[in-house]
Amino acid sequence: MKFKAIIFDFGNVIINIDIPRTFQAFATLTGKKQAVIEKLVVDNQLFRRYETGQFTDIEFREIVRQTVGFPLSDVEVDRAWNSLLLDIPTERIELLKELRKEYPIYLLSNTNNIHIEASNNYLKKNFGLRHLDELFDRLFLSYEIGMWKPDADIYHHVLETIKLKPHEVLFFDDNHHNIEAAKAIGIQTILVEPPTSIIEYCKTIF
Hints:
The chain contains 11 helices and 5 strands; from the N terminus they run E-H-H-H-H-H-H-E-H-E-H-H-E-H-E-H. The chain is of the alpha/beta class. The protein folds into 2 domains: 5-16 and 87-203, Rossmann fold, CATH 3.40.50.1000; 20-82, Putative phosphatase, domain 2 (DNA polymerase, domain 1), CATH 1.10.150. A 5-stranded parallel β-sheet has the order 3-2-1-4-5, sandwiched between helices. Helix 1 (20-30) runs antiparallel to helix 5.
């Protein structure tokens, strides 16, 4: 494989995540069944709406309260929302540092401010890093740019910004739809399928 830059997804590529943990956390707080919470979140498109910048953190917390029908505090909302975030293995941090010596590396993630703030706090506590942008040449975060994977426009936006053609980029993502959308416009792709991590995939490339 020949390429000039590498783009990484965040969830389950860099940081381990478990989305059902968030549904369970809200279920525990509200006394409702996990399946009911999940349906409410999905039906109201909370992830997509918040992660494309359609409302602020304050507005999001209020929408969560309305969606689950329970007077949760801001702290309770944030804690439950962040419960899907797990850990970032040290070897992945080291891999990024090594790859960055040879290639520009970028982060492309469907995410939101509350999750990014929690991730930055984790990085500071565990690795002494103040912010995710210390690991990458640039961050492309859905809530900041108002675009969402797998929509084609987000990939075109990244390519135009980094001034590379699709075939000059290698993209790691754990979501099949995101991979297929990127592949459709000519980006080289690798589908990350946990428990196999980017460490194992990279051993076959570099």
